[in-house]
Prior knowledge:
The protein is mainly α. It has helices at residues 2-22, 29-49, 55-78, 84-102.
Amino acid sequence: MPWLILVVAGLFEVIWAYAMKQSAGFTRPGASVLTIAAMLVSFGLLSLAMRSLPLGTAYTVWTGIGAVGAFAAGVLFLGEALTPMRLVAALLIVGGLVLMKLSTP
């Protein structure tokens, strides 16, 4: 269960990152409220996952899901460039997340 909670926390990190971009520096109220709400949910779920998972593992996986998810959201929804080097970088992050999961008892 802690791993599922951690993945959901990471997905909420993607939501708040995307909403923050859409808030235009917190000048758009709807996106600003969504950013803060998603942050609170993400941090809350991360803290629950950390009850059972090691700090380094939980934090690394959480930020990795957020980083790769924000990258994907930027490409899919904001027209950001999908270059071979950016794709390789994202794949390296995913590889690190898999290794972190496999190395955690």
